[in-house]
Amino acid sequence: MREGQSAVIYRADYQPPPFWIDTVELCFDLDPAKTRVLNRMKLRRNPDVPQQPLKLDGDELNLARVMVNGQGTSFRMEGSRLVLENLPEGYEPFELEIFTTCSPAKNTKLMGLYVSNDSFFTQCEAEGFRRITYFLDRPDVMASYTVTLRADKQKYPVLLSNGNLVDHGDLDEGRHYARWVDPFRKPCYLFALVAGQLVAREQKIATRNGKEHLLQVYVRPGDLDKTEHAMNSLMASVAWDEARFGLALDLERFMIVATSDFNMGAMENKGLNIFNTKYVLANQATATDTDFSNIESVVGHEYFHNWTGNRITCRDWFQLSLKEGLTVFRDQEFSQDLAGEASARAVKRIEDVRVLRTAQFPEDAGPMAHPVRPDQYLEINNFYTVTIYEKGAEVVRMMQTLVGREGFARGMTLYFQRHDGQAVTCEDFAQAIADANPQSRLHELLPQFKRWYSQAGTPRVKAGAHWDAVTGQYELSLSQSCPPSPGQPAKEPFVIPIAWGLIGPDGREVASGMHVLTQASETLTIPGAPAGAVPSLLRGFSAPVILDFDYTDEQLLALLEHDTDPFNRWEAGQRLAVNRALAAIHGSGEIVLDNAFIGAMRSILRHRTLDAAFKELVLTLPAETYIAEQLDVVDPQRVHAVRESMREQMATALQDDWAWAYEHHKDNGAYRPDPVSSGRRALAGLALTHLCIAARSSGDGVWPGKAYQRFKDASNMTDRFNALSALVVSGQDLARSALDKFHCMFKDEPLVLDKWFSLQAGAPDRGGNILPAVRQLMQHPDFNIRNPNRARSLIFSYCSANPGAFHRADAAGYVFWSDRVMELDAINPQVASRLARALDRWRKLAEPMRGAAREAIARVAGKPDLSNDVREVVTRALAD
User: What sequence ranges are listed for the domain Aminopeptidase N-like N-terminal (predicted)?
Assistant: First the structure.
């Protein structure tokens, strides 16, 4: 093992901390080159653990002084850890003082204390606090914090930290200070400070108990006009959490701060949330409907962490889904509740499931597969995954399904009664939900249900149907299985709630219910069913499983037309499209869409009562990555070609219908990002893209001209970007002019330029032109690989989101990938490790791509001094 490399951490090895830290007083003298940190802590030995030395975590710190109870003391270094042995005996508290310095300006990892645009920010989750001071950097050590910040007043007029501002004033030599006290004990990963040139939108609100609270959204000067939606989302979040779960805001103030340099989307530091600007800044000129929706969701997510993550936190990092899965579920419910009507709620549910199936299902089937509660890790940053978040949310959703909405609220109440102020486990949460509902199936099946936390992989449910003409009984045979995953060759049966319905031959629903599948195989008997009834299974996506049922085209068409469950109605359309794509891929590669499919799509598009947002979802073909997951051996270029051919045929066959849809949905009056208006814009954008695609085939310049005019005249970013995307995706000559004009219009808007880079890197590959374009864009004056957003917008959009262009027969895409992974690893290992995962599924590739991909991964794995972040990903990818 090379110097600096870490050992694998195992959940089974968890031990309580040998010391507790009761209070922490931090004093910062902020300077970009050399920040001084004085850390005074009161500690005591844990009486439940044998006495041992105190070992404090540290990383890239310069240690100047260590004192115990006011006296200098001996110490030694054990790697990067500070080890103290000469400590007071017994269990009485003692004071430890540590003085260190660090260089925030040189911190390109964006973990710990760093500088972005001449302002100071922190990111401490998961293990960033050790880059600020020596500490027991683990989530089960919870302390009370007092923080004093000192800095140049002119350069850093705003000084923020967690909790309540108790004192502030001027100092000598043009400096000033601010002192913050957090009234709640917290783990160090929730510590935060911000200092810089910032302005704030402020709003005072009153919670139901009559207490007044101050909400603040801090941004750089010039961005204040883009904060109204974030503030409205924060106010809605506060009101929703109190109304739905009785969880009130518990601080005098709640602050959000936005920075353009951030590894994640946002961070829920107690009372001082630090956000990527992508999830704060929005107005109609610079942000799309999707941006507005994402901001609402992420603001809600981070605020909801105030209770599910902060007030109750994780005992250890293996329990990460305790806070993340639960809080994703809460933000999904928040967005659905705000959407209001059933159709808008269904659209949100479909969008969430689409993410799960295109990102998490492949993860479950790949080398980085892990349970919702992992058993081991080398680098915890690699486990901030769709499995922890999205699949974890589905596990929580199944709990609500099994106990009911009111029962789940009772369970949440009991959870907080038992564990407020504690660091606990996933089992503690599940136990509280079950104990609050002793008559529920969850309580009855809890030991088995917990397998969702311990077993990796996506279960498959195979269903078959038989109708008895004599008795009129309809029998559904159900069986479950789960394929092997790393370290888990065999799986025990899961608890799988399956919502179901039966659609009669006349299109009416004749029966519905919920069946909880617990055995390897079971049979569900439904009396009184008519001949020809079609089963609608896994309604609302009631469990995160793959459903295998041999539907005929006629059955799928019936579900698409008549199913009362919106999710399964959408799913029927997806299955019809996937079946045709797979037939072409397995066959000659040529595809001719049949009249039945085209007619079904026309019927949806022209439907009088369906919402535009739902139509847009049905008419959007399954993603290439989702189609690829249905194959044992994948040629991504073949998949891309088949999907593009399907899209071209839909464009041509439905050209008049697309024109109707565009004309009837393009105008929505004054801009509002509500579900109805957003849905109309989405359908108009999809229609315009198809019209430009059809024009490319026919050579007609009318619709490209209309798209270009729409691009120039649009009154909001959604319509403008939809028009630009239509030109780029369809390969129109006007695309270059529109791209140049777009850059000139928004060259001073970083988040908009991210869209500009991303659109070009993710465009369909015609003759291998995308990789050269990406290489050229890396030389653009506005490209900066050190900024995570910009790196993701260009490099990730090509390597992770454009499989048809990335998986080249000449392996040039893989060479580019390996170069960028190694380049990023030297700058920011977290970003590099996420890029490294673009080749997780290399073993499914057809030759020669498979061999070339392996060679590229091995090239990265062989690099000396590789970070743990990247090393874990590539090592697991290569493991047999």
Answer: 93-190
Retrieve residue 565's tokens: 């469950």
Residues 136 and 273 in one domain: yes
User: What parts of the chain have a pLDDT lower than 50?
Assistant: 1-4
| Amino acid 768: pLDDT | 96
Q: Is residue 375 part of a domain?
A: yes
Same domain, 325 and 428: yes
Instruction: Provide the pLDDT for residue 341.
Output: 87
Residues 6+ apart with CB under 8 A from 631: 582, 585, 639, 844
The pLDDT assigned to 340 comes to: 87
Contacts 24+ apart (CB under 8 A), 659-667: 659/687, 659/691, 660/606, 661/605, 661/615, 661/686, 661/687, 662/687, 662/688, 662/691, 665/612, 666/710, 666/719
Contact 377, 335 (CB under 8 A): no
| CATH code of the domain in which 520 resides | 2.60.40.1840
Q: Same domain, yes or no, for 426 and 534?
A: no
- Is the Cβ–Cβ distance between 295 and 286 less than 8 Å? no
pLDDT at 5: 56
What's the angle, vertex CA 646, arms to CA 643 and CA 652, rounded to 5? 145
In this predicted structure, what is the pLDDT of residue 320? 98
pLDDT in the model for residue 517: 98
Helices (H), 425-565: 426-435, 441-449, 451-454, 553-562
My answer on whether 367 and 494 are in the same domain is no
> Which residues have a Cβ under 8 Å from the Cβ of 204 and sit 6 or more positions away?
212, 213, 214, 215
CATH code, 799: 1.25.50.10
Which among 550, 584, 604 is the end of a domain? 550
Same domain, 213 and 354: no
Instruction: Choose the catalytic residue: 97, 302, 363, 394.
Output: 302
CA atoms within 13 A on the CB side of 720: 22
d(CA 824, CA 788): 10
pLDDT in the model for residue 2: 34
Cβ–Cβ < 8 Å for 535, 465: yes
Last residue of a domain, one of 280, 299, 328: 280
Domain that holds residue 796: 747-880
Q: Is 159 helix (H, G, I), strand (E, B) or coil?
A: strand
Residue given tokens 């049979």 in the structure block: 523
Does 210 lie in the same domain as 173? yes
Is residue 302 annotated as a catalytic residue, yes or no?
A: yes
pLDDT on residue 3: 37
- The structure tokens listed for 237 are 């979040």
Q: Are 57 and 19 in contact (CB under 8 A)?
A: no
3-state secondary structure of 424: strand
Angle between helices 566-586 and 612-619 in degrees, nearest 10 = 20
415 and 504 assigned to the same domain: no
With respect to residue 427, please indicate whether it lies within any of the assigned structural domains: yes
Cα–Cα distance measured from residue 560 to residue 600, given in angstroms and rounded to the nearest whole number: 8
**Number of domains comprising the chain:** 4
pTM for the structure as a whole: 0.98
